Amino acid sequence: MTESMISVADLNAHYGLSHTLQGLNLRVDRECVAIMGRNGVGKTTLARALVGLNPPKVEGRISIFGTDVSGWAPHRIARHGVGYVPQGRRLFPSLTVEEHLTLNRRPGPTGEQWTIQAVYDMFPSLAQRRKSYGNQISGGERSMLAIGRALVTNPGCLILDEPTEGLAPSVVETVSNGLRDLSREGVAVLLIEQNVKAAALAADRAYFMAEGQIVYETSDKDDMTDDEVLGRYLGVSA
Ligand SMILES: Nc1ncnc2c1ncn2[C@@H]1O[C@H](COP(=O)(O)OP(=O)(O)OP(=O)(O)O)[C@@H](O)[C@H]1O
């Protein structure tokens, strides 16, 4: 059997005495996989561990494209072909929309198809704001720019931490459809998402996370939005 694009085995993370990730296992192939879970269960900690932004203590194995990247620095993981859309977006107030894209643009494992124009085609409102600075755009535009900035690196794997936060429903749909299409083109997409409808639209499979572990896995879209399932594993409803 060939190794998955992302493979995580027995991942543990600690913040001081707090054991945040507790022996977590997951895999992502050429598909879109959602991670769903309540606030504070460790979703961001997981995303950060995958891209090398570690809390004080992390143990376990993280393999990306068949290479063990455990302990690698974030820039090395990025160069390996991993795109990351962080929560909080981390944009630069002194750079324009276009400069954010230009500075990050490079060919990646999937070639060069994600040009700046391709990002503008996906998010037309960014094209209109191309000369605006990172601190002069709306929350939704910030999310779009953070996604665009990851896409122009032409990643082979894309990790997104609540990318639809702050987006209008029509743009949520654009993003979800875009992520689904990206996975169809062979990119491994790991989508942390609290918007269950957005997750179900984009994802082929979902992991439900609670207290630092995966507690449920499904590839049934109805399950992903089912009130009984969501209530049982996440304590929320769709
Ligand atoms: N820098 C830190 N120092 C200490 N504890 C932290 C730190 N960052 C996160 N934690 C704790 O680790 C746990 C997991 O946090 P994390 O941000 O990974 O959760 P999350 O599932 O992404 O939550 P949310 O959906 O609210 O973003 C929480 O209890 C949080 O308080």
From TrEMBL:
Please give the biological process terms from Gene Ontology that the record holds.
L-amino acid transport
Question: What PROSITE patterns is this protein classified in?
Answer: ABC_TRANSPORTER_1, ABC_TRANSPORTER_2
Gene3D superfamilies referenced in this protein's UniProt entry, alphabetically: P-loop containing nucleotide triphosphate hydrolases
In this record, what's one Pfam family? ABC_tran
Q: Where is the ABC transporter domain?
A: 6-236
Family annotation (InterPro entries):
AAA+_ATPase, ABC_transporter-like_ATP-bd, ABC_transporter-like_CS, BCAA_Transport_ATP-bd_LivF, P-loop_NTPase
Record keywords, A-Z? Amino-acid transport, ATP-binding, Nucleotide-binding, Transport
Q: Which SUPFAM superfamilies match?
A: P-loop containing nucleoside triphosphate hydrolases
State the superkingdom: Bacteria
Write out the GO MF terms: ATP binding; ATP hydrolysis activity; branched-chain amino acid transmembrane transporter activity
Q: Which family does it belong to?
A: Belongs to the ABC transporter superfamily.
Write the protein's name: Branched-chain amino acid transport system ATP-binding protein
Q: Which organism is it from?
A: Aquisalimonas asiatica
